[in-house]
Design a protein that fits this description.
heterodimer; A: 116 residues; mainly beta; seven-stranded mixed sheet; four-stranded antiparallel sheet; 0% helix; B: 112 residues; five-stranded mixed sheet; 9 strands
């Protein structure tokens, strides 16, 4: 089945130690998103790629960056993780033709990041 | 993005229908109504969406009020696997139409 795959499912890192989360997709969608979901909260968009164009949300901290080397892969880099960055990180994809508002997003199962 | 209001939680019995309400009194004419659900320890899953007419798919039905200020997600026969947080999201054509803005959602509990 075509899908969105996130690795690893669980990641533990140390305070201040850079960490990279990965996402791959077999849907051939041109838009990829990264959301942050803290415990008992709703997912919140960090940024997205429309093809190779990177779009940052205004309130996303500079500590968070992303790379998309090709259509299938997207990475989330956290340069210096703090305790407040412990969360589930969700990758999603969608097609961008017609209106975005008609296109569902397809989510991976997330990577749960813990900070020691 | 226009706001939605959902009950914090609802309870249902297995094999009974479930009607999950959503109010969106400030919806604009071009906003689509999307529903997603999130099972425990999983990413959100698309359920259904619509604009004006009622919609059916293999997972659920979406009933949209004539004035579009409210909608109801209908699960025809709840199973234990339907226990999840259900999010009603307005997805419009404005400047931020690329993103989903999640509210608090409704936590659905299904009793055996």
């Amino acid at each position: 089945d075509a899908m969105v795959i996130q690795n690893p499912r669980y990641q533990v890192t140390q305070f201040g130690k850079p960490v990279t989360l990965s996402c791959s997709q077999t849907l051939n969608h041109n838009v990829m998103y990264w959301y942050q979901q803290k415990s008992s909260q709703a997912p919140k968009l960090l940024f997205h790629y429309y093809d190779k164009d990177f779009n940052n949300e205004a309130d996303t901290p500079d500590n968070f960056q992303s790379r998309r080397p090709n259509t299938s892969f997207c990475f989330l880099d956290i340069r210096s993780p703090g305790l407040g960055d412990a969360a589930m990180y969700l990758c999603a994809t969608s097609r961008a033709w017609g209106s975005f508002s008609r296109q569902p997003q397809h989510f991976g199962d997330g990577t749960r990041l813990s900070i020691l | 993005d226009a706001k939605t209001t959902q009950p914090n939680s609802m309870e249902s019995n297995e094999e009974e229908p479930v009607h999950l309400p959503c109010n969106h009194s400030t919806i604009s004419g071009t906003d689509y109504i999307h529903w997603y659900r999130q099972l425990p320890s999983q990413g959100p899953e698309y359920v259904i969406h619509g604009l004006t007419s009622n919609v059916n798919n293999r997972m659920a039905s979406l009933a949209i009020a004539e004035d579009r200020k409210s909608s109801t997600l209908i699960l025809h026969r709840a199973t234990l696997r339907d226990a999840a947080v259900y999010y009603c999201i307005l997805h419009g054509r404005g400047g931020s139409n690329y993103k989903l803005t999640f509210g608090k959602g409704t936590l659905l509990t299904v009793n055996p």
